[in-house]
Write a structure and sequence with these properties.
It is a single chain. The chain is an alpha+beta fold. 23% of the residues lie in helices and 32% in strands. It starts with a strand and ends in a 15-residue tail after the last helix.
């Protein structure tokens, strides 16, 4: 039932693009550290090449993914077919958080629609690409993207979002370094 892929080809890239959300999983090295799984949406994913992907990391209440990537780079992305034939796709890799101010940030950010409150672009070099049946995933109908996160960032404005990140995103719940201080 499952299949591994050498690369993301055009058909697989089209299937990925049709999914309205995906999940990101990371973990710290410490045995007692918290494993993190985050849902993502808002048209924030891009295939950069046959074995490289990226997504926009928008400012949120936690900074686990960035902290875990800084510590060890391990990341898995999961796509689920909530409509159409059942299918799961896992992208295993090594990731890096490219923050505003980093040399490659502007070029990477141009690959995505503009979003207020962008904290980083997470770039992932893929080591394994595999699908599985997805028979246990229910069928859902997409209605719309939620607008609360972009509206929150717009209300805060760039300075308010920067202050929020400095206060709430400087460290993970396990005390690992999160986002760098912005000037």
């Amino acid at each position: 039932m499952s299949k591994t892929f050498d690369a993301i080809d055009d058909d697989l890239a089209a299937w990925i693009a049709a999914q309205r959300m995906f999940f990101v999983a990371t973990a710290p090295l410490a045995a007692d550290g918290h494993v993190n799984v985050s849902p993502k949406g808002l048209d924030s994913f891009a295939v950069l090449g046959p074995r490289e992907v990226a997504y926009l990391d928008l400012t949120g209440s936690g900074v686990e993914t960035i902290a875990h990537l800084r510590e060890n780079g391990r990341i898995t992305l999961l796509f689920c077919a909530f409509a159409g034939p059942p299918r799961l796709l896992r992208l295993y890799g090594r990731g890096v958080a490219v923050e505003p101010g980093d040399a490659e940030f502007a070029a990477l950010a141009q690959r995505f629609p503009a979003h207020p409150g962008v904290r980083a672009v997470v770039r992932v070099a893929l080591g394994r690409i595999a699908d599985s049946c997805g028979y246990g995933v229910p069928v859902y109908r997409f209605e719309r993207d939620r607008d609360q996160l972009p509206a929150w960032a717009e209300r805060k404005g760039p300075d308010g979002v920067r202050e929020y990140r400095a206060e709430r995103n400087a460290a993970s719940i396990d005390g690992l370094p999160g986002v760098r201080a912005e000037s």
